[in-house]
Design goal:
single chain, alpha+beta, Alpha-Beta Plaits, Immunoglobulin-like, 5 domains, 8-stranded mixed sheet, globular, disordered N terminus
């Protein structure tokens, strides 16, 4: 690995630079927060009383062997006694203690991270590409280093995300992620395991997910918001978050996850020692609890940290990255707490990193355990963004938005896959045997479906209430109606992404299904973006149809269901959503629908023979056209084949033979196809259409 060497850390210049930096840091810190904290252990502390501590400004770090570790604002210790709890101060003014530790030049400032990652990417272009994911509240780049054998290309490989310093004062998490980068890049081409993993996986590593907080040494971002309460999946207005994905930091990682298909998303924190898996919002186990536990215990074998579902092992939180990563995108995700001190002595950086890196490599190795493959259009061969559900696990993951590949972690056993995308026929593959030490490849073609209704494809954001007693999860609101229902809780809401835009058509454009004898009220809103703005289509109860024209809108992709607030806390509280089904938007073969900006004229010389045909047909070109382009479409308006040809003179003009195959050589099914001719001749543009039938 080639990186720029730092100046002698013992030299005068380095000390001067650090002094100037910390003077500026002190000034910046006053802009973000003036609060200093003691590190305190409260013992005992029942979990149900944690909200009382948070209401007086105490930051919960997590449990240790004998109690609960917290950061308590200096001067508020007496309030802990008034709550009837005992405590001991472990480190007085831990804020200043951490700031002093961070003065050690073995810690990296945000700017040093940014500069060094830039140098690494520049000097190692064969395996590294530095990506800017977005910008912080104060305009600082949020970056991630993409590490893989062809970083400029999208490849069919498992993708993994590791990020640190979501809480800006937890500096050790950033150092762990940075040292993981150093290990991958330095040992590529030297260490066989590292080389193999970089060649066959796609790593995304972001040491500083919260640049403003890292610089100011604060938990929150530049707005004072806890980014790990701002993610949109089961968001609940905690940590100062005014709305789901309200902050640029959480939006940057949400958008990265939407563009990719992460098998794993690990977030590195500090404050205790723990591996905290989904769910953190609910006491009920996730559908992948056994898969997550297997990976978690494998990680624990390297670190010896406790592993548990976050709600039980740590404490209840809403709007976390791990719940979003698993709930919305299906990634195997968790938070790793790597040290009881958030910024320990710099002597700890290397030992802690060396403890984490083998565990991180273990997670990368396990990416090839389960079922993987590509989902594609059976006619065109084009990759599809599809929902892939392994049964009996019954939790959706999603194919990559570019290549259509998926990598589903599963334990050895026999499974079925249910694969679906709006506009295509659902396909179920049964009796897939997953071996004990590798993955099985299953590539899945989906056939176009112009009749079946569209359905809920993904839940990008929701606010589920009464989660402590409601055991249903968001997967029950997806797919077509099946009698299974998500209870969203009193005053809860959920946003459903159809994955496709629907348009206003005569009559109702979609139906909300409750299919329950206990009819409950709700409001429906629609939008073209998962953040809104949303337009109300009004209220109804039970199963009901909705017309986009009621809200004066012509199209939507996202549908929001909001409970009306009636009822009490119980296992089926709030509106019970079975499914949303929408009229599919089908492009017909009319010229004005297929090609709205093109004028077509009849051309007797433009013809096909034979028509209908079985194996091949000749498309005759008008002799007046020295340059011609033919686009062949199916009845849904999808381009499936293109011909382009130029002729030196009219005598060379000849027919073009089409064998009834798509661009990738795939044989097309019998049906009606449309040939669009675009030509330029002596009389100017000549555009015409022909309908042809393949038997």
């Amino acid at each position: 690995m080639r990186i720029k060497q730092k100046e002698n850390q013992g030299g005068k210049m380095a000390k001067i630079v650090k002094v100037l930096f910390f003077l500026s840091l002190a000034l910046t810190f006053t802009l973000y927060s003036n609060t200093h904290y003691h590190l305190i252990r409260i013992s005992p502390c029942p979990k149900e009383r944690i909200p009382e501590l948070e209401r007086i400004g105490i930051i919960i770090n997590g449990p240790d062997e004998t109690g609960l570790l917290v950061d308590c604002p200096i001067g508020k210790e007496a309030e802990i006694f008034r709550l009837g709890m005992d405590y001991e101060i472990l480190i007085k003014d831990v804020t200043s203690y951490y700031a002093k530790n961070f003065e050690d030049t073995r810690y990296h400032t945000y700017q040093e991270f940014l500069d060094t990652l830039t140098i690494i990417a520049t000097n190692n272009p064969n395996i590294c590409k530095l990506e800017t994911l977005g910008f912080s509240v104060r305009g600082r780049p949020i970056v991630a280093l993409k590490i893989t054998d062809n970083p400029l290309e999208e490849e069919n490989e498992p993708e993994l995300l590791f990020e640190g310093a979501t809480h800006g004062d937890e500096k050790i998490g950033a150092e762990v992620c940075f040292n993981f980068i150093i290990r991958l890049v330095r040992d590529y081409g030297i260490d066989p395991l590292i080389t193999h993993l970089v060649d066959t996986r796609e790593f995304w590593v972001s040491p500083v997910a919260n640049p403003d907080g890292h610089i100011a040494n604060t938990r929150g971002n530049g707005n004072g918001v806890d980014v790990n309460r701002d993610y949109g999946y089961v968001w609940d207005a905690a940590g100062g978050s005014p709305g789901p994905f309200s902050q640029p930091e959480s939006r940057a990682f949400r958008d990265l996850a939407a563009r990719n298909s992460f098998y794993h998303w690990g977030s590195y924190h500090a404050g205790t020692l723990f591996i905290s898996a989904p769910w953190s919002y609910s006491p009920f186990p996730p559908r992948d609890s056994l898969n997550l536990k297997t990976l978690g215990l494998g990680y624990r074998s390297y670190t010896n940290y406790p592993y548990a579902q976050g709600y039980h092992g740590m404490y209840e939180i809403h709007g976390s990255s791990k719940d979003c990563a698993y709930g919305s995108f299906g990634a195997m995700s968790w938070t790793v707490e790597v040290c009881r001190q958030k910024t320990p002595s710099a002597d700890s950086i290397v030992p802690i990193s060396n403890r984490e890196i083998p565990a991180m490599l273990y997670i990368a190795r396990m990416a090839k355990q389960g079922i993987e493959g590509v989902v594609y259009d059976s006619i065109t061969g084009q990759p599809l963004r599809a929902m892939v559900i392994a049964l009996p696990t019954d939790w959706p993951i999603y194919t990559d938005s570019i290549l259509g590949d998926f990598h589903r972690f599963l334990l050895p056993g026999t499974y079925s896959l249910r694969v679906q995308a709006n506009g295509y026929q659902t396909k179920t593959i049964t009796d897939i045997i997953v071996p004990s030490d590798t993955s099985v490849e299953v590539n899945i073609p989906l056939s176009p479906d112009t009749v079946s209704p569209f359905f809920g494809f993904m839940v990008p954001t929701c606010r589920l209430k009464d989660g402590n007693v409601i055991s249903s999860f968001t997967n029950l609101a997806l797919e077509r109606r099946d009698g299974r229902r998500l209870s969203i809780g009193v005053n809860g809401w959920v946003v459903i992404d159809l994955g496709r835009v629907i348009f206003d058509q005569p009559g109702d454009d979609f139906t909300v299904y409750e299919e329950d004898a206990d009819l409950e009220g709700y409001r429906v809103e629609v939008a073209m973006d998962w953040n809104g703005s949303f337009t109300s289509l009004g209220y109804d109860t039970g199963t009901a149809g909705f017309d986009l024209s009621r809200g004066g809108v012509s199209s939507c992709r996202y549908i929001k269901i909001v409970d009306d607030g009636d009822g009490t806390n119980n296992p089926t509280a709030g509106f019970d959503l079975d499914a949303i089904e929408a009229l599919p938007t089908i492009t017909g073969i009319k010229e004005k629908n297929l090609f709205p900006s093109t004028t077509f004229r009849p051309s007797p010389a433009f013809r096909c023979y034979p028509n209908p045909f079985k194996t091949k047909t000749t498309i005759q070109i008008p002799p007046t056209l020295p340059s011609i382009r033919l686009d062949i479409y199916d009845v849904q308006g999808r381009l499936i084949r293109l011909f382009s040809k130029s002729f030196a003179n009219q005598s060379e003009v000849e027919g073009i033979v089409w064998d009834g195959k798509a661009s990738l050589g795939r044989q097309l099914p019998p049906g009606v196809y449309i040939i669009k001719m675009l030509g330029i001749g002596a009389r100017g543009k000549e555009n015409s259409l022909r309908v042809i039938k393949l038997e």
